[in-house]
Amino acid sequence: MTSPTLLKIDEVAVADVIERGRLRPVSEAAVESLVASIGELGVMKDPIHVRKLKDGKLVLIAGGHRLAAARRLGWERIAAKVWTNVTDDWARLMEVDDNIAGAELNALDTAIFLATRKEVYERLHPETKAGVAGGRARQGSANDIVSFAAATAEKFALSRRQVERLVAAGAKLDPKDRSLLRAAKRPVTLKDLTEISKIGQPPERYAVVAALSEGRARTAAEARKAYAAQERGVEPPVKDPVEEGFNKLMDAWKRAPKAARRRFIEELFDEVAPLVDDEADHRVGGMAAE
Asked: Are 111 and 78 in contact (CB under 8 A)?
């Protein structure tokens, strides 16, 4: 098989670059940040990567935010590394690595990218699959085999356990799940994703993802409890916002150091003092009535 070849490092017309099948949508905040950086520095730090097809078309491999920033700035041309003899798997791996190494990814996108990386990596290096590598090790021929988790952990300065948890979470999500979770009112955490990865039945996963997306649950664990109660025909308890707010304030107060508590009282004294006086009068009035 012919290896990917760097054809040239040059400028290409922004209008000629085609985008298709990207793993994540472009972040408006990231594009604005990049535009501001270019405005300060006067240059775009890194070129985009494109693959040149046999018909001459240029398809984006890596650099979606850079391309979007160039369009926002009205550039006609952009610096690019142009590759040829590129396979879909090689292009996907470059897209994933470019994002993991260079972008500020949230937990959801990190999980999606790492799960995709594992899938592509093991297609390109089938000898690294757990079962295959283990068999070769027992035969004494696995000295040069490095598992996906180990190779990825070293490449991106993550722990092997982090990689394994993120991959397990990302692998469970289908395109609809990903779209809904990206639209969630609260950022989805690794803990949420880990909880979702434990779900065995698709109906429950769909219900939990929908609850997070629509803001009906704060966490995946909470959504799972609600789903289990619904399946048992039990109505979930109605939450008292006053009780919830009180418990949160008490929890924060107990965990705060004494100096922080003192500063808190000083900051809110004018607001709290009248409430304390009112409560004292109420209690005295109640005792007199008795």
From this structure: no
